[in-house]
Amino acid sequence: MKPRAYRVCVVCLCMVAWLAAPCLAQTGDDALFARLREYRLGADDGLPAELAQRVSEARPNAARRRAMARELADILGSNATSDAKQLACRELVLLATNEQLPALLPLLHDEQLAHYGLMVLACIPGPAVTDALLRELPGAAGRVRLGIIQALGERRDPRVVGPLASLLTSADRQDASAAAAAIGMVGGKPAALVLKRVYAQTTGQTRLVVARALVACADDSLAANDRQTAIALYALVDASAADPVVRAAALRGTVRAKGAVAVPLILKALTEDATARQRMAASLARQLPGTRVTKLLCAGLPKLSPNGQLLLVAALADRRDPAAATALLSLRRSPVGAVRVAAMRALGPVAGGAAVYPLLVAAASGTAEERAAAKASLAQLRGADVDRRLLDVLRLGEPALQAEAIEALGQRGAVAAGPHLVAALRSRSREVRAAAAHVLQSTAGPAQLPAVLSAMLATHPAERGDLLVTAAQAARRGATEQQRTAPVLKALAAARRPADRVSLLTLLGQVGGPKALAELRKAAADPNAEIRLSAVRALAEWPTSQPAADLLRLAKGARSARERAIALRGYVRLVGTDETRSPEQRLAMYRDALSLADSREERLAVLAGLARLRLPGALECAAGLASDQGVREEAEAAEVAIARSIAGAWPDVAKAALQRIASSGLSQQTRQNAADALATIANSVDYVLAWEVSPAYQQPGADCTRLFDISFPPEDPAKAKAVRWTVMPVATNPQQPWLIDLLALHGGEQRVAYLRTAVWSATERDLRLELGSDDGVKAWWNGQVVLAHNVQRAVEPGQERVTVHAKAGWNLLMLKITQNVMGWGACARFALPDGGPVGDLRCAVPSDPEVRRAVGLAEGR
């Protein structure tokens, strides 16, 4: 094809497309408007959005915008539904012009659609709409009439003032009120003249409405920079209106118009207690700018009532102008307590160094409210001389003021005060020492530790408590063990008095570390009983189980009953908190403790630990203590707790203990608890209860759905041996006796845990495994994945069913259960493939010696 012919073809195709586009659009619009005519709210949910989109597309194009407006206007005059006409009006707001007036005005005669018609008319500019509304006004009634009056006011056309003025004296109060408000919206001098004339002639509610309209007119004049007219109107209303809220609005306008000259008006209004004008005056006192205004306000402060003073003091605080400081300081002598407190509180953001001493006096000797306000302001005071004046008081003031100055310096974070605070630790005043110690607890570090230690050792042993805490906090901030303990060890080596060594050993116990532990072990054999006792006490309170063996040895060879008791109780505490040892190891340690327990309190401590062990041996140990009448009730309660937790793993042992206590337990409550546990176990007979549970696993940024596919140690052959499995307690809720409640055990959200059990089958056969889970579940049978459902749900029995092939003897089942939020758990039972019961199946925990010998657990499944 020749180039010229090609260009002609392209031009022709473009013209065809251009001519066809409106037709295509029109075809689409026709279908849309056909749907619109039949539209009913809720029946065609997509139509409003489609119509809005079509209108949005039409607006940039004048021809399409006009056509769309005509189509929508046609809807208004048709027999379309009322919902359709309302929807059309909502879109006409964006499109309508004077051309749509004939379609819109009839809506004003329809009670249901008048509001929508006025909504569109309000968006059409120009006098034509105003004229049309004025023509409609005489024949309108009720809400439509009020709507037209408001619409006329919103158009702000001076021509409406005359027609609306005739309504101001109407017997219909609603008409008169609406007309007054509308004239106020129009604003300007003609409107003001009409309103002033009517205001002088009316009373009651009509006068109040006109007063509000006059304020609106005044606001309009002020916005037009006609201050003289605005001030005159505000003054008229403020002087004669009966309503305090309207007068408050007039006061606000006057102050905005006059500025600082209006401060006397603010002060006068502040004398009018419990009125809207007083509250408005307080607000205006905050807003007027300038130091001159602050000084004028302060000059009037003494003449106000206590309520007025409280409001103005709060306003002065918000102004944050130092020029108010002197006036606020003078109020600290007010006979009214609330005023004194408010003034002291206001000094913080306003005053500087001059307020330091008065506030310190108030903080040391005022009422509780005054002390709190003064302390808060001391922390806020501004100016370079504030900290200097506080330090001057710290050096030369009386002890009560020194203590307050120290607290203020701490609150202010005054870095330069550090050496002075350390020096204050040696003050003769206990109050000053305590204040300095308290501040240094938050700021002191290794650099200050030697000085703190020196001050502590120079203080009487009975008064070292605060200093000991300060030294411990300073030491803990050390980055290395050398920084944390070297100064303490050096002081200990030099200490000769037993009381000093006791304090330093106590400190080492609080700081911790290998060197501190070694020193405490050595001191536990010191010839001095007081030193030995402090070392034993520090070992008993050690945060890890490292000194457990030391404590047991000390308990066995203690030189006094007190040392033995402290060592034994510390040993029992460390056993209970040591999660690194297996339950069997902890049981053996509890047995050692029992062999030394002489007192009831010591046996109770051991029982408390035994109750948390899920082992038959723990149950046996607690049962042995039940023969001691001094702890029988507590021992039987521990038996119930242990039996309930091991009922799944060792049902025969647990049931025997529960039956014995249910029939012959000492306490009625314990007997009932045992009976309840037996009932729960009986109700769960068809479900697997012999489970071991892994720790809970998480991964940063991964929610439960992602955790489902992440391989954690129990399912990773290379890491499975290191997993610490523990016996899973059985359910305690009689309504859900089948529930394995992981939430109660582990708690938390967005995590996973694993459960495992061993299943003994007399023969090789197929079984149906029925599972429930909250949330997702993955199941391994003899090391093979047989089910994976990544889901979020509440647990119910039988949510999943899968056929598994059991070999004769022991089989291993492991479940992975994910946790989203709220509930977290699982349940499982076995049945024959047809759903019938399996009579010769039993379950056990995989760590049971019989199971461990029969199957290999190296793979962790």
How is this structure best described in words?
A hairpin with a 2-residue loop joins strand 6 (777-781) and strand 7 (784-789). The longest helix has 35 residues, at 3-37. Strands 1, 2, 4, 6, 7, 9 and 11 form a seven-stranded antiparallel sheet that branches. Strands 3-10-5-8 form a four-stranded antiparallel sheet. Among the domains are: 445-683, Leucine-rich Repeat Variant (Alpha Horseshoe); 692-854, Sandwich (Jelly Rolls). Helix 18 runs parallel beside helix 20 and helix 32 (529-540) runs parallel beside helix 34 (561-577). Helices cover 60% and strands 8% of the residues. The model is unreliable at 1-27 (pLDDT under 50). It starts with a helix and ends in a 7-residue tail after the last helix. By secondary structure, it is α+β, with helices and mostly antiparallel strands.
Element layout with pairings:
Layout: H1 3-37, H2 47-58, H3 62-77, H4 82-92, H5 101-104, H6 114-121, H7 127-136, H8 142-154, H9 161-165, H10 173-186, H11 188-201, H12 204-223, H13 227-240, H14 244-258, H15 263-270, H16 276-287, H17 291-300, H18 306-319, H19 325-330, H20 337-350, H21 356-365, H22 368-380, H23 385-396, H24 399-412, H25 418-424, H26 430-443, H27 449-458, H28 465-476, H29 481-494, H30 498-511, H31 514-523, H32 529-540, H33 548-556, H34 561-577, H35 583-596, H36 600-610, H37 616-625, H38 632-646, H39 651-664, H40 668-683, E1 692-693, H41 704-707, E2 726-727, E3 740-741, H42 742-746, E4 751-761, E5 765-774, E6 777-781, E7 784-789, E8 800-806, E9 809-819, E10 825-831, E11 841-844, H43 849-854
Antiparallel strand pairs: 1-2, 1-4, 3-10, 4-9, 4-11, 5-8, 5-10, 6-7, 6-9
